[in-house]
Structure formats: structure tokens, C-alpha cells
Design goal:
The chain is mainly α. The chain has one domain. Helices cover 69% and strands 2% of the residues. It contains 7 helices and 2 strands, in the order ββααααααα. A two-stranded antiparallel sheet has the order 1-2. Helix 1 packs across helix 3, helix 3 runs antiparallel to helix 7 and helix 6 runs antiparallel to helix 7. 17% of the residues are buried. The mean pLDDT is 84.
Length: 227
Amino acid sequence: MAMSFFDQFASPSYLGVPLIAIAIALPWVLYPTPSARWINNRLITIQGWLINRFTNQLMIPLNIGGHKWALLFASLMIFLITINMLGLLPYTFTPTTQLSLNMGFAVPLWLATVLIGMRNQPTVALGHLLPEGTPLPLIPVLIIIETISLFIRPLALGVRLTANLTAGHLLIQLIATAVFVLLPMMTTVAILTAVVLFLLTSLEVAVAMIQAYVFVLLLSLYLQENV
């Protein structure tokens, strides 16, 4: 039983073909394609309004050079939210519970922000490794600490998203199992547990959206330091 709780995080395959590719490609099929008409339907209008609001919120702290990343950040945000939400449906697989996938997003994007800073303003980028006014004996130690914290950033991005989604899925499965076990023996307790399960599922929906937003927000903050 303990091992079966973690079976949901194993990448499924059919006839030897990993289905994670379908899970990654599916979100883009679900969204309607905007048309060239001036008047669209309500769904496309709401979709466009949400994307514009999110993009404006991210781009406000950035200068003009950072606005080139608007399309990438908006696409990544929509992609992560959709995958996280689809993973809450029964008999589905959540690719973002895989640390390898999240690190595949975090490391290249983080590295791109660092390389942009080193190319455009190397003095400012290297200046982040040593806070102003540092006493002379502490300079070597602080440079080592800041360098380690810089390289930990992509790991923190990937682990944060993986850990939050994995913990939520495990809690939902544990409480759902408790409901089925308690239902024949203690109906009242099972009903109360089902109410807790419903509340936890609602919370997990919020977590799925918030974690996608936090992932992109932190990338924008890393970009802000280097543009």
C-alpha cells in the first residue's frame, strides 16, 4: 500500500511509448485560437484579458530590454497552470511532479538570465556577489556564499514546484484512501473526512495556479537583476 501511493508519479507508457509527451503537448490543444475578427467570443476575450493582465504585472518592474521575454513568460505560465490543473483530474498524470522536467525548465531559463547579465553589464552582475560595505575579512566568505546561492537558484525553482505538487497529490490520495476505508465502519467520520478532502482539493487547485505563477515570477526577478 505504501508503495502504491507513489505509483501515480511514475511516468506512464503505452506499448513502450512514454505518454508524458502527450501530457506535455495536450495543453496547447485545449486553448482556442484567436481569430482576426474584431469581435471574439467570450472565452477568447477572457483568455486575452487574463494573459494581458499577467504579462503587464510581470513586465512592470523590467526595463524595455526585459520586455522581449513577455511572450516566453506568458506561454510558460499558461503551460504550467494547465498541466498542474489537468493533473488534478482522476486517472491523469502530472508531468510537473517530475523533477527532471522542472529542472529542464529552470536551468536553461536561469542560465539565460545570468548570461544576459554577464554580456550586457558584467560589472553589475558580478557586483551582486559582493554586497556594498562588506568588511575586508569577510569578502572571500561572502563571495563563496553568494556564488553558492546563485547556483542554487535553479535547483530551488525546480524543487519548489515538484515538492508542492507532489505533497498535494499525496495528501489527496491518503485522505481519499481513508474515506473509502472508513465508509463501511464509521460513516460519520468518513463524511467529515470527505469534506476535508473536498477542501484540500480546492486548496490544491489554488496551489497549482500559485506555484506556476511563483515559478515565472522568480524567473522575472532573476531577469530584473540582469537587464
